[in-house]
Amino acid sequence: MPSITRDQVRVPADVPADARESYIDNYLKATRNTGRLMLFACDQKVEHLNDDFYGEGIDPADAEPEHLFRIGSQGVCGVLAGQRGLIAAYANDYPDINYLVKINSKTHLIKTSQDPTKHQDDPYSPQLYGIETVVDLINNGVNVVGVGYTIYLGSEYESQMMSEAGQLIADAHQLGLVVVLWMYPRGKAVKDEKDAHLIAGAAGTALCLGADFVKVNPPKGDDTSSSAEKLKEASLASGRCGLVCAGGSTVEAEVFLQQLWDQIHVGGAMGNATGRNIHQRSLDEAVRLTKAISAITLGDWSVADAVAVFKGEKDFTV
Fold first, then answer.
1. CATH number, domain with residue 16
2. How confident is the model at residue 248 (pLDDT cuts 50, 70, 90)?
3. Contact 147, 100 (CB under 8 A)
4. pLDDT score at 70
5. Residue 318 lies in a domain
6. Which of 45-54, 114-123, 270-279 has the lowest mean pLDDT?
7. Whole-angstrom Cα distance, residue 44 to residue 105?
8. CA 241 to CA 238: how far, in whole Å?
9. What is the number of structural domains in the chain?
10. What is the average pLDDT across 298-311?
11. Whole-Å CA distances, 230 to 233, 235, 297
């Protein structure tokens, strides 16, 4: 199992001396002392409204928001990421979860298009609140270790989102908080959101903005290279900003776990950011999947061993 000590945590130079220990604490909490991130993404209740939580193929338990927190409490995760209000509503009942507050969000009701002949707007995810509201949560005893922000690179609104994110990162580091950027090339200027070269550019942009981790969609593979092989360009471009891949829509657990192993061991990813693949399942199954994902991400276990964890034949703890 990979592990890092306090003196191995690289503290960014914009973290002031009096916040260095807090940053180290939060980084080690978020990565479970491994340097890798297992992010349980629970921000889709705004992003996708109720489409991801109710309907065919989705376990009935997912209709209730507390399902997310039951999974986060009973499973093995690095952080649970969600909007401030969602976290505030449940955190007192689940104080041991490491929380990451998502600062901006948008719904999927306003459609975007890559077709320049269609008059649809480019995506913009507005900042919903400032860093001071996160401080309020911390002062009230909520275990917040970091913040997150989405940037749609290539949108006509990218400059506004980059400016907001840059200031957020500076403010968060002043407090010793870890920052994750969701970086998605999207908009009329973007011809292919899954292009490996473009995703690598987005990962490098996150590094330049000062993020500690960057969440990207895995690139699409082709006849010459797999998705994981193409991901290597992005993991190199991200430098000391740890790259993690979005989980996407729900697939068979065995398929997902193999993809995750490949992303880490072939593509050089530093973890994963998974939402629907976890929470659309029953509580028992979702908890077992968090443990299986963490077995690979945090424990460096094989796919076969991780599948055994998912099937309940083995257990994984940190």
1. 3.20.20.70
2. confident
3. yes
4. 98
5. no
6. 114-123
7. 9
8. 5
9. 1
10. 98
11. 6, 10, 19
Does residue 317 belong to any structural domain of this protein?
A: no
Task: Please enumerate in sequence order all residues whose Cβ is within 8 A of that of 261, keeping only pairs 6 or more positions apart, or say none.
Answer: 296, 302, 303, 306
Cβ(245)–Cβ(261) below 8 Å: no
Catalytic residue numbers, as ranges: 184, 215
- Domain membership of residue 136 (yes or no) is yes
* Residue 58: both structure tokens together: 């989705």
- Percentage with pLDDT > 90 across the chain: 94
Residue 280 lies inside a defined structural domain of this protein: yes
Q: What DSSP string describes the chain?
A: -----GGGS---TTS-GGGHHHHHHHHHHHTTTTT-EEEEE--HHHHSTTTTTSSTTS-GGGGSTHHHHHHHHHS--SEEEEEHHHHHHHGGG-TTS-EEEE-B---SSS---S-TTS--PPP---B-S-HHHHHHHHHTT--EEEEEEEE-TTSTTHHHHHHHHHHHHHHHHHTT-EEEEEE---STT-S-TT-HHHHHHHHHHHHHHT-SEEEEPPPP--SSS-HHHHHHHHHHHTTTSEEEEE--S---HHHHHHHHHHHHHTT---EEEESHHHHTS-HHHHHHHHHHHHHHHTT---HHHHHHHHTTSS----
What is the per-residue burial (b if ≥16 Cβ within 10 Å, else e) of 227-236? bbbbbbbbbe
| Token pair recorded at residue 83 | 């909007």
Give the residue numbers spanning the domain of 16: 6-310
Tokens of 32: 């479970």
Q: How many residues does the chain have?
A: 318
Residue 110's pLDDT is 83
